[in-house]
Design brief:
12 helices; 14 strands; 328 residues; six-stranded mixed beta sheet; single chain; Rossmann fold; 2 domains; Alpha-Beta Plaits; four-stranded antiparallel beta sheet; alpha/beta
Amino acid sequence: MSFVSAAVIVEGLKKRYGEVAALDGVDFEVGEGSVFGLLGPNGAGKTTAVRVLATVLVPDEGRAEVLGHDVVRDARSVRPLIGLAGQYAAVDGNLTGQENLRLIGKLAHLARGVIDGRATELLERFGLAQAADRTVRTYSGGMRRRLDLAAALVHNPRVLFLDEPTTGLDIQGRSELWDMIRELVGDGTTVLLTTQYLEEADKLADRIAVVDGGRVIANDAPSALKARLGGTVIELTYEEEPDAVRAWERLAGVFGDAVEREGLLVRQKSEEGARTLMEALRSLGEGDLEPARVAVRDPSLDDVFLNLTGRRAQESKQEMSTAGVGVG
């Protein structure tokens, strides 16, 4: 049996901002050459954890290592080993793509003879070669995000921290960035990815830690997290909310807490999908409550999040935004 060594080790991390506990005893490990996802809403503590690992913040308690180096006591050894791309592109809009990467190379103390070749290589790899001599302010959002990722890779880091890298990108831009992340991991890079997007975590991560309120509330492979729920999910959609309410009340009387309602959608988890669906439709038919649409699917990470936190990830994002919480 083979064991994957840990590229990142986090034990008991705590960090407070006044009365807010951004990290409240966080533990996890990231295997070398893997993608590890930190999944949770704004304010869950994801960005704070990344800033500690990137030696930007000092934790109040606990410890963390990157490739065997303590991020507090040996920060100077950690920094050449890591790359960081944040939620918003950090490149200079007044410089060209080529000039941005050259500047990063100089800041990373790369040899002068290496910098130009590395910049050209990365611009080609990320589909930016034709725009290399254009100022970055003329780039699209997706182009700026790709350049930001390229900038984080100029010095060939072994561990890459991506803090919500697809924020603000359209579907095509997200898909392109996902392909690039997979390519990097295929070349041996270890990636720690923070995200609010359940689909993103599901598609990219080998393992996911669900973070809520500064704590890790689950840590497993995406398939294992979904398997905990078992069975299938039945979704019944109505055209009028009063009908959805009546349907939910009727099914809850038969199936109990397995039934929930979200607007026009009535959702039910079941270990016996086909049998439960038939019973549900029979009961609804007796009440003259046939749904407009019916779907049966496997559990999703959104279902996992709901099961763990009592709310959906989208609701959590809206709550944090309304509350003005910004600790990440």
